[in-house]
Amino acid sequence: MATEESGSAILVSTKQTRFHIENPVYQELDIEGLNITITSAPKPGLSKLKSKARSEGLELLVNANLKLKAGVHYALVGRNGTGKSTILKAVAEKLIPGIPIQTRIAILQQVTSGNDRSGETVGTGPNVLETIIDRATSRNEIQHEIDVLMKAVDDEQGAYAPLRALRRVQHERLEKELFWYDKDARLRSGTRGMAARKALVVFEKKVAESAARLEQKDEDIDEETLIEETHATSDLLADLQSQIEPTQIAEIEAKAKIILNGLGFSSAILQKPVSQLSGGWKMRTNLAACLLQPTDITILDEPTNFLDLLGIIWLQRYLLQLRDEGSNPPTIVLVSHDRDFVNSVCQELIILRDKTLTYFRGDLTLYDSTTREKKLFLTKMANAQEKQKAHYQQTIQQNVKQGKATGDDNKLRQAKSRQKKLDDRMGMTRSATGGRFKLNRDLGGFHLASRADIDIPEDERPSPIVLPEAPDLRFPGPLVSLEKVSFKYPAKKGVASPTVLQDVDLTIHFGDRVGALGLNGCGKSTLIKLITDTIKPTKGVVDRHPRLRLGYYSQHAVEELQALGQSDQDLTALRLLLRDNADDGEIEGDLRGLLGSLGLPGRFASDVPLSKLSGGQLVRLALARLLWHHPQLLVLDEITTHLDYYTVTALADALSSWNGAILIVSHDRYLIRRVVEGKRIREGEEEEVESEEDDSAKERTVVLLKGGEMKALAGGVQAFENTLEKRVNKLMGG
Question: Which residue windows are transmembrane per the record (predicted)?
């Protein structure tokens, strides 16, 4: 199957699956031989993509198995650019043969789709609450049918009006259903494809008959049919009205308000048209709609990107409550770079690696530990085997030499036997389950004559991030110092603005680590603007070291680079840095070295345009733009938003050992714990221990901004999290 979008197509194929049964469990998938390829969309007029086009495409999955169990929460884990979002989209749009057409799937995508459902100009259209209730209940569609039927029933001039309205509603429903029959026929192949195409032909006849009935003249309709369909019109109208009766809508509205409140919507924002909202609030609206509507499978692609820590913890609790308390909970598949969120919510991991899917029952910490232990075990086994092979080879040579010299056939037979064992039985000595290897059970197939070699898995971490050292200052002193700093924005139309920050004291020395926590709107962005000299304080003093070089990573850095890439399709990472530093002379070699140290080597730096780089690669480029100027202080504002789990880990390791000062504003608890507090979770254990590699940091401080004030948190991230847990309990009625 191929689906086209934005000049590209998603090609999907699978083997036959078990979903030919009459009543499948729609929360479950068991699809074998799954292949997904992205390639250029076919030219207009071509109905099929040629095999050549397939070979020129980008393969995301090759002969993979997609297995989802009902009610289980999964995390899809993979590096940036491996196709996680595309795979989830293929599932959500039911492009994969084997997904029943009747399966209800809701998806939250990272990027809002271009076709806004509201369709209105900015400032008009339904508000937030109306929008998500409509998505959950299809209220607008039901109301449309009610209006059609009601108008006909109230029409006293025509006895045939109710019959006409009923047939119109029925025909519109059949046309919508025809779309799914057509899609089902195009998705399937083989025996199932033939059955689906036969079903499509039968249904097309049914639609044609409905169209003929719709055009039937009054004089051709007998009285019995008129009476029967007039009664049917009244029955259908009553049924539709019951579906949107105030009591039922009130229950859904109450649940919607609970979800919206948990995601941070105030009463004022609820009444705003969706078209007026910023991108972040629109994404929260989409998330609320996904959580509200009844589904079999819910797909959440980076749901925490636009949430503060209160919203993240609330979402954790809501998803757990949904799984534990629901009578028929949906299957959840999510992608998130937030390690704590994944560990709290998910029961199993789906690892996307080397164009295939593997499954692991447990969280990310246990997966890291298990993977590392397995690699260590296999390495030891391989080393021991190499020594054993060398010994066998030596004895074989000695036996052959002695046998030929003395004519001893026993020695030659012994050498031949040892050679056979060396060739056929010196591979794996343990089965996949860890038990002893047995030929009749564990040999890969009847066509194999020997055991498989020991395959040591490669490290799954992406290219490491190496930060160049920050230069020393020529004379001592704090890098930045804020003394009794207050700030409020200028009054608008004579109305005084509230104070955003009040009497803030903060001092950052070379090598310090500072983490700033707080809910959205607490003043974190204002604090950053004061430190970076973007704005001036209303009161108080902000001092900076005269030789300070500051590197500021904005939370919008990736979007800015994406915009540059769209405006200039030939712009690469190397060209951008050369353009930024055109006055620095011959620096191409040094820039290549910097990009390579940050994980953008070779062709990724010089040949791949910005528009083709993943979010994680653009973060690395944004860091390169900062680090080229050798800053002593890095100010990082939500740097993990576009990163995958592996890259967050690599970045945390790099920042932890950097010698300069760092101020981090982030909702990622792992990053704050690792970089600012100097802690790391020991593999396989839950306790947090001091890292030995973080000796460069002088002072470690976690501060909380709340109500315009800033205070140090003695308990760090955990203290803030505990406070938010209590608030979430209240929000959820606990």
Answer: none
The shares of helix, strand and coil residues in the chain, as percent rounded to the nearest 5, are 45, 20, 35
74-113 pLDDT tens trace: 999 988 878 898 999 999 988 888 788 788 899 998 754 3
* Closest among 309, 263, 300 to 671, alpha carbons compared: 309
d(CA 153, CA 162): 5
518 Cβ contact list (under 8 Å, min separation 6): 308, 524, 704, 705, 706
Q: Is 259 left (phi over 0), alpha (psi -120 to 50) or beta?
A: alpha
**Is the alpha carbon torsion for 588, 561, 596, 455 positive or negative?**
negative
Per-residue model confidence as pLDDT tens digits over 679-733: 865 544 444 444 444 455 579 999 999 988 999 999 999 999 999 999 998 888 7
Reference 547, options 628, 626, 477, 623; nearest CA is 477
Cα Rg, the chain, nearest whole Å: 32
Distances (CA, A) of 141 to 153, 173, 179, 244, 587: 19, 10, 17, 11, 62
686 against 420, higher pLDDT: 420
**Can you tell me the distance from the alpha carbon of 586 to that of 584, in angstroms, rounded to the nearest whole number?**
7
Do 95 and 187 form a contact (C-beta atoms < 8 A)?
yes
Distance of CA 342 to the CA centre of its chain: 11
**CATH class for the domain made up of 478-549+632-734:** alpha beta
For the cut 50, the answer to whether the pLDDT of residue 116 exceeds it is: no
DSSP H helices in 350-424: 364-406, 409-424
Scan for tokens 């993990």, then name that residue: 640
Rounded to two decimals, the pTM is 0.78
Say if CB 599 and CB 446 are below 8 A apart: no
Rounded CA separation 264/279 (Å): 15
Distance CA 3, CA 11 (A): 7
CB within 8 Å of 561: residues ≥ 6 apart: 576, 610, 618, 621, 622
Residue 651's contacts (CB-CB under 8 Å, 6 or more residues apart) are 465, 619, 639, 640, 643, 671
Q: What is the pLDDT of residue 113?
A: 39
Classify strands 356-361 and 297-301 as parallel, antiparallel or unpaired.
Answer: unpaired
Burial of 707 (0-12, 13-18, 19+ CB in 10 A): exposed
Question: What are the residues facing 706 on neighbouring strands?
Answer: 709
Q: Does an H or E element contain 483, and which? A: strand 480-488
Tokens of 180: 């799914």
